[in-house]
Amino acid sequence: xxxxxxxxxxxxxxxxxxxxxxxxxxxxxxxxxxxxxxxxxxxxxxxxxxxxxxxxxxxxxxxxxxxxxxxxxxxxxxxxxxxxxxxxxxxxxxxxxxxxxxxxxxxxxxxxxxxxxxxxxxxxxxxxxxxxxxxxxxxxxxxxxxxxxxxxxxxxxxxxxxxxxxxxxxxxxxxxxxxxxxxxxxxxxxxxxxxxxxxxxxxxxxxxxxxxxxxxxxxxxxxxxxxxxxxxxxxxxxxxxxxxxxxxxxxxxxxxxxxxxxxxxxx
Amino acid sequence: xxxxxxxxxxxxxxxxxxxxxxxxxxxxxxxxxxxxxxxxxxxxxxxxxxxxxxxxxxxxxxxxxxxxxxxxxxxxxxxxxxxxxxxxxxxxxxxxxxxxxxxxxxxxxxxxxxxxxxxxxxxxxxxxxxxxxxxxxxxxxxxxxxxxxxxxxxxxxxxxxxxxxxxxxxxxxxxxxxxxxxxxxxxxxxxxxxxxxxxxxxxxxxxxxxxxxxxxxxxxxxxxxxxxxxxxxxxxxxxxxxxxxxxxxxxxxxxxxxxxxxxxxxxxxxxxxxxxxxxxxxxxxxxxxxxxxxx
Lengths: 267, 295
Hints:
The structure holds 2 protein chains of 2 kinds.
Chain A: E1 11-12, E2 21-32, E3 35-41, E4 44-46, E5 50-55, H1 61-68, E6 77-84, E7 87-88, H2 96-102, E8 103-106, H3 117-127, H4 133-146, H5 150-153, H6 166-178, E9 184-188, H7 196-209, E10 214-218, H8 222-228, E11 231-236, E12 239-245, H9 246-251, H10 256-263
Parallel strand pairs in A: 1-12, 5-10, 5-11, 8-9, 9-10
Antiparallel strand pairs in A: 2-3, 2-4, 2-6, 6-7, 11-12
Helix pairs in contact in A: 3-4, 3-6, 4-6, 6-7
Chain B: H1 2-36, H2 42-46, H3 59-90, H4 95-108, H5 112-126, H6 133-157, H7 161-169, H8 174-203, H9 206-209, H10 242-252, H11 258-292
Helix pairs in contact in B: 1-11, 3-6, 3-8, 4-6, 5-6, 6-8, 7-8, 8-11, 10-11
């Protein structure tokens, strides 16, 4: 029997005081048909920091994350506001392709295209009108370096991306996203399909990337949240229960639900 | 012991079944080739047929078969590609889509003779196109379409969903994702489907008897202007294909060596289909390597 927690008693900080926010949601709700999967999420994400979204399976964290770059379009109904550069990008007339170029996404399972390593990165760039060979080459190099993959693949850029290991594929997916030079990088459990060594590499990559990008990462792994994030949001059954600095959450959780979840005596 | 024994028996039975299938194929091929090949000669392959007796070479018929195949594919591949992409990616899961699917299934189970008669009545008679390559190609398109469409839809659907998400998350449009990312991955499956349907088209006779006709007028192979009446490329001339020729020689051929003629023509037909399959498979793999950079 799952313990009942009051959804009234939450501890959600705004983080808006002394840092500027990369993006922010207001009353965000998500429905899968009649199923109300996400209630009233008001979260702000500080610029150039890593924010972790944690919670059990089915808590709505991935659903929430996928709403942020409109990947739920056609799958779920998302209401409320998603503020990005003072624009509500949840409006129907927003150019979602443009939005996704600014808010990149990396998925749970590494999903490189069945193309060469180089082509994985330049395909979307070319589609967006970047034609110069020199610029493309430069983007390939900088993005692969940014994802800490360059040294491993620089001599085999024309080999198939499918021949890479799972961890390398995931870092290639990160490189592919940052090659678009986005503002915000969304990661949906990027390490859940990876072994511990690859996980460490991806985490190190993320810690480097936060200098240039604002990162929001969904993770099942609380140690990972503790290792990489500056602030952490705890989701439970479609509600944001607590959103506090990571150090606070793991040393001094504000509400019983968080306390139970991080101590493992949940449910 | 029980599990091991069951496994052994199952393995033996499965192997036997496979051996039977391969055995039948080899027997058929060997029979046709042994019966036919001794009568195949260069003059047979390139010669013209005597319009009255049916004796003589099969040069024109051989060309007609290939020309009809190319024309059929030119018409049916774009249509089925569009339909397949629609069904796999854009169609919503509702009554309209299931209606389309059932329509495709019904179309694929139409007897070829019925398709042939329909083509005869509509194109040959009603539209006054006459017995012609183009009438035959359209009739063949009718039963080529459902196979190809289903094949393309299945090949596309087999590509993992996360490839689509990857494309969309990079700001690519759905169409661009479809054409640039999903289609190349599905290509080997699609090419295999095209090969299989090409074999069917190449060997089809019933639907062509009434549409492409049973006469193979001598054409001038030096004239490649499709508008000229004597040009082999003219789509409005009647064109007996190899398969129709085999049927005709066997049923109403007056040549004294009719059985040898049809055996030789059958051998040529089989070899052509085999070569075509082989070539297209090589092409499919080559294309896949090119677009995916995989070894």
